[in-house]
Amino acid sequence: MNENITPYRSETATKKEQVATMFNNISRTYDFLNHFMSMGIDIIWRKKAIRELVAVKPEIMLDVATGTGDFAFEAINILKPATIIGVDISEGMLEIARKKIRERNLGHVFSVQTGDSERLHFKDDYFDAITVAFGVRNYEHLEKGLADMYRVLKPGGKIVILEFSKPRRFPVKQGYNFYFKYVTPFLGKLFSKDNRAYTYLPESVAAFPDGSDFTGLMDKVGFKNTMDRRLTFGISAIYTGIK
User: Fold this and answer.
1) pTM of the model
2) What is the 3-state secondary structure (H, E, C) of the chain?
3) Which end of the chain has fewer surrounding CB within 10 Å, N or C?
4) Domain count along the chain
5) Is residue 162 a contact partner of residue 46, using CB atoms and an 8 Å limit?
């Protein structure tokens, strides 16, 4: 499973430590490369994912693997929660998020903190909704991370996970594989200072248990009514579940 795919293949550092280092290294180019390499489609994906929570009307939200905060900012724009907390293991990414929060004067709604998806520092049954964008494939222990998010979600609360998927139909599958295997690492090396980060990206997506394999893991830790909604010919997917 994806625990075996690591950014730097170090024998001494854990996957978690390697992921934190990787995101620290690419934090200043992360937003630009996300939008550039996806041609802006990632913004549309985030909006669609957040709209899964419109009927829930969450007041208190948790954004796990918040990165530079883009998913949380979409949640604020669309859902108008009273409070949203973002957690991430990369201080470099959180520095960017804090700057954006100050620039947008959203400190009264959105705060961020260093956090581990497998050991969330929140009490049980606390959040109305939890979101994760492009983060779960980086978890060191995926099932454990899902279980801890389940723990801090209120009964009846909803989780929304946006993650890369694997297209299965010709010719999208072939074009996607070529782009991810050759174009993505080239652009990553060109614009970021981490040569390995954008080689790890397609490797981590290929190893991720997407589709029914992932909803099966969500079911296993306790989520109900789990669903898998494919976007843009299966390039990404929205996963939802209820506690």
Assistant:
1) 0.94
2) CHHHCCCCCCCCCCHHHHHHHHHHHHCCCHHHHHHHHHCCHHHHHHHHHHHHHCCCCCCEEEEECCCCCHHHHHHHHHHCCCEEEEEECCHHHHHHHHHHHHHCCCCCCEEEEECECCECCCCCCCEEEEEEECCHHHCCCHHHHHHHHHHHEEEEEEEEEEEECCCCCCCHHHHHHHHHHHHHHHHHHHHCCCCCHHHHHHHHHHHCCCCHHHHHHHHHHCCEEEEEEEEHHHCEEEEEEEC
3) N
4) 1
5) yes
Q: Give 90-140 pLDDT, tens digit per residue.
A: 999 999 999 999 999 999 999 999 999 899 999 999 999 999 999 999 999
CATH code where residue 69 lies: 3.40.50.150
Residue 116 contacts residue 94 (beta carbons within 8 Å): no
